[in-house]
Each structure stands twice: as C-alpha cells, then as structure tokens.
C-alpha cells in the first residue's frame, strides 16, 4: 500500500460508459486512489509492468488480451484482481485464477462497495501477514487479525489454499495470507519439506510412506487424524532420501 495509505487502483475497461461509472464509484470510496486507466490489454500490461497496483478492476472482453489473459500474464504477489463483465459464464475461470471477486454488469454502487470492502479486508490481512518471524524454534505469523506463535514441532503440515495458506496443528488450523513458498523460506529445511505443490510437511510427523498400485506415493502422519497427504512425483526421491530410504 502507498505511503498516503490509499490503495492504488487500476481500471482496465474498453467501454467509455462503463469506464466512467467505475471512475465515479472509485472516487466515492475514500480508501481507494485511482492510479491508472487502460482501455485495452496492451496498455494494461504496460502499466502493470511499470507500476505497482494494489487492486485492479478488469473487464474480461478487451481488445488485444482478455481480462483472464492479463491475470495469467501478471505475476505480482501484491496485485489482486476483481473481474467486471456482463457474462456470468467466466466466473469459474476467474476464481480459478484467484480473482478476489466477480462483478456482473450492470452492478450498483452498493454491490461495488461490498466488493471493495471484501478486497480491503483481504489486502490488510495480506499486508500484516508479511510479518512472518522465525526465532528460537518458533514461527510467528498473522491470522484472523491476531498474532500467533507456534513451536515448529506443533506444526504438522501446511497446505496451499489459493492465495492463502493453512497451518495445521493438532488442535486448530490457522489461515494466513502468506503463500506456501513464503512460509517454506522461513522454516528450517532439515525439518520441513515440500512434498507436493500444495503441501509442506513437518518430517517429524511422518509415520509412513506408501506406494500405491497407480505408481503414486503418499504419506501418513502421526497426528490424531492420521492424515494422508499425496507426494508429488518430482518430490518423491528427495523425500525418500530425507527419510533415509532408498
């Protein structure tokens, strides 16, 4: 977020009436600052590469590139998208790309405001959860607007959940806005290992490694639920080495 504490917003919209309506809506949200406007996919990509935006309202049907294509091409961890379109059939695609919301045209200011409030809540959690600290065998992180401290041993595994991660312990699961790769960097590699694109596991909690008839591996944990997690093929060899297996 910028120093003036407004969220920097980009509008990507090719239709003039819709673009003017979005400008009016944004100007009526005191937390938002209109920092850029693009009328087609090429200009949008140029702006997204030149500047950092917190929130992008993007139409799906655009000249040059679709809104979905733009999301796929932009790999900025701190930039989040809300789709605006007259077509409901793209909703599944939008959420698979981790869009924060999907505004179906025509939408009222009340619906727009609700979407903004949802986005701001997410952005605040995302900003605060960057403060991940690894000290004295403990992980300190933000979840549900609170600071939590967990001993490494108490963490069974961590799973990816779109743009968030879930830290699993015996008694509670904690959702944090940090990505799995960020948590992986903060945890000791001798104790925690990526076993799948969606899972990071505490090696101390592995009870067994299994090989099924289909040629895939999975692990079972020592926790009360005896959780079973899949092992990605590219991680299997390294996991066996870490477990002392050949």
How would you describe what is shown here?
The chain is an alpha/beta fold. Helix content is 29%, strand content 33%. The protein has a five-stranded parallel β-sheet with strand order 2-1-3-4-5, with helices on both faces. The termini are far apart. The model has no long low-confidence stretch (mean pLDDT 87). Keywords: DNA-binding, Phosphoprotein. InterPro entries: CheY-like_superfamily, LytR-like, LytTR_DNA-bd_dom, Sig_transdc_resp-reg_receiver. Pfam families: LytTR, Response_reg.
- Text of the CATH class of the largest domain: Alpha Beta
Please give the radius of gyration in angstroms. 21 Å
The CATH fourth-level homologous superfamily of the largest domain: Response regulator
Q: Proportion of β residues?
A: 25-35%
Total DSSP E strands: 16
Spatial strand sequence of the major β-sheet: 2-1-3-4-5
Encode the helix/strand succession as letters. Answer: EHEHEHEHEHEEEEEEHEEEEEH
Mean pLDDT: 87
Major beta sheet, specifics? 5 strands, parallel
**CATH topology description of the largest domain:** Rossmann fold
Second CATH tier, the architecture of the largest domain = 3-Layer(aba) Sandwich
Derived structural class = alpha/beta
End-to-end gap: 49 Å
Share of helix among residues? Answer: 25-40%
Number of helices: 7
Shape descriptor reads elongated
Domain HTH LytTR-type: 139-245
GO molecular function: DNA binding; phosphorelay response regulator activity
Pfam families: LytTR, Response_reg
Keywords: DNA-binding, Phosphoprotein
Q: How are the elements arranged and paired?
A:
Layout: E1 7-12, H1 16-27, E2 32-38, H2 41-50, E3 55-59, H3 67-73, E4 80-85, H4 91-96, E5 101-104, H5 109-128, E6 133-135, E7 138-143, E8 146-151, E9 157-161, E10 164-168, E11 173-176, H6 180-186, E12 192-196, E13 199-202, E14 206-211, E15 217-221, E16 228-231, H7 233-242
Parallel strand pairs: 1-2, 1-3, 3-4, 4-5
Antiparallel strand pairs: 6-7, 7-8, 9-10, 9-13, 10-11, 12-13, 14-15, 15-16
């Amino acid at each position: 977020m910028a120093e003036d504490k407004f969220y920097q917003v980009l509008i990507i919209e090719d239709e003039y009436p819709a673009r003017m309506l979005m400008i009016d809506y944004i100007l009526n949200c005191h937390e938002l600052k209109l920092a850029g406007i693009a009328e087609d996919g090429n200009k949008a990509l140029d702006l997204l590469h030149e500047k950092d935006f917190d929130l992008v309202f993007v139409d799906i049907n655009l000249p040059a590139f679709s809104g979905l294509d733009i999301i796929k091409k932009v790999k900025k961890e701190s930039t989040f998208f809300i789709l605006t379109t007259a077509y409901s059939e793209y909703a599944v695609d939008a959420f698979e790309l981790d869009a924060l919301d999907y505004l179906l045209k025509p939408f009222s200011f009340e619906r727009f405001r609700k979407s903004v409030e949802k986005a701001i809540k997410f952005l605040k959690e995302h900003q605060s959860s960057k403060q991940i600290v690894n000290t004295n065998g403990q992980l300190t992180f933000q979840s549900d607007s609170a600071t939590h401290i967990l001993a490494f041993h108490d963490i069974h595994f961590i799973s990816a959940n779109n743009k968030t991660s879930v830290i699993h312990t015996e008694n509670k699961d904690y959702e944090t806005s940090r990505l799995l790769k960020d948590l992986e960097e903060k945890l000791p590699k001798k104790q925690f290992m990526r076993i799948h694109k969606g899972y990071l596991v505490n090696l101390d909690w592995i009870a067994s490694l299994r090989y099924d008839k289909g040629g895939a591996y999975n692990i079972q944990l020592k926790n009360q639920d005896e959780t079973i997690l899949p092992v990605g093929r590219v991680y299997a060899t390294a996991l066996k080495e870490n477990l002392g297996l050949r």
